[in-house]
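Researcher: Let's do a round of design. I'm pasting the structure tokens now; please hold your answer until I've finished.
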């Protein structure tokens, strides 16, 4: 039986939360067809003329049956074992169906450095010198050693192409830069997180992103050892018009959660407070790309 990751995740949620109400979907139709569990129950129409929704319902005990069926395949126990992600090439040979189970981008992360050199597994990989390059996509499970002195998480994709502008910055000179990935389906954010966790024991982890409410929140969520921000002395010396010219549209108020009027600095490390206070004072946010284009000096704040 071919069970891809999307179907497997749906089955896990059914086993773990069997009483949760779920609307009919292609996935629930597939679960009925493949496993013979569950059924679709029409709901009452909310308004005249509307098409009634159908909810997917598990009968008593069918969550346990689904768990056994998954275990009988090669996917193991839903509550104990990780989903077995195969290599797409290997799986296509084994099943003659390349999309049967493996994600094409499984365990892949995008890495770069300001010097366009990656020092991994005791090897030196030099990227293009004459062509702007966002880095190299690598299978992080094959990385056994990292010969850089820090890992920097880059929030946005575009700056990955412009890291060479920072090669004279001592924080970036010998750092490995990781694109944090996107949270849309299949965009490797989960793999970036796995790689970050694997690096924590051997490297300090820093965050390089937008100077806005969301940027600080993301940096905190990664539990980083420091954050790269524009030099506070430089920013503090600029007048209101200059700061507005550097700021990005919709980089402050739209990012505040409901009921918030400013960012609470006390929730963050003291070294970040001056930047947060300046941001609150002017009610502005500054995006990574704009500051990079303006050649603003970046400093590390721990």
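Researcher: That's everything. Go ahead.
Model: Designed sequence:
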């Amino acid at each position: 039986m071919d069970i891809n990751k999307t179907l497997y995740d749906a089955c896990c949620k059914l086993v773990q939360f069997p009483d949760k109400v779920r609307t009919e979907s292609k996935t629930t139709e597939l679960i009925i067809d493949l496993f013979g569990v569950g059924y679709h129950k029409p709901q009452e129409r909310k308004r005249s003329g509307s098409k009634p929704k159908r909810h997917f319902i598990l009968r008593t005990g069918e969550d346990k049956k689904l768990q056994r069926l998954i275990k009988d395949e090669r996917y193991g126990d839903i509550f104990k074992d990780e989903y077995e992600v195969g290599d797409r090439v290997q799986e296509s040979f084994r099943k003659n169906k390349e999309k049967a189970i493996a994600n094409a981008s499984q365990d892949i992360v995008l890495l770069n450095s300001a010097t366009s050199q990656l020092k991994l597994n005791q090897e030196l990989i030099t990227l293009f010198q004459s062509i702007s390059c966002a880095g190299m996509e690598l299978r992080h499970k094959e990385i056994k050693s990292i010969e850089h002195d820090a890992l920097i998480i880059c929030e946005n994709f575009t700056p990955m192409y412009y890291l060479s502008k920072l090669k004279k910055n001592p924080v970036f000179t010998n750092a490995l830069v990781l694109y944090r990935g996107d949270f849309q389906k299949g965009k490797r954010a989960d793999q970036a997180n796995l790689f970050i966790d694997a690096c924590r024991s051997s490297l300090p982890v820093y965050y390089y992103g937008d100077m806005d409410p969301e940027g600080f929140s993301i940096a905190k969520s990664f539990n980083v050892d420091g954050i790269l921000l524009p030099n506070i002395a430089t920013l503090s010396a600029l007048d209101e018009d200059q700061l507005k010219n550097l700021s990005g549209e919709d980089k402050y108020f739209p990012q505040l959660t409901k009921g918030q009027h400013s960012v609470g600095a006390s929730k963050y490390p003291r070294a970040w407070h001056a930047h947060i206070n300046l941001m609150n004072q002017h009610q502005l946010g500054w995006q990574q790309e704009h500051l990079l284009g303006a050649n603003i000096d970046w400093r590390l704040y721990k």
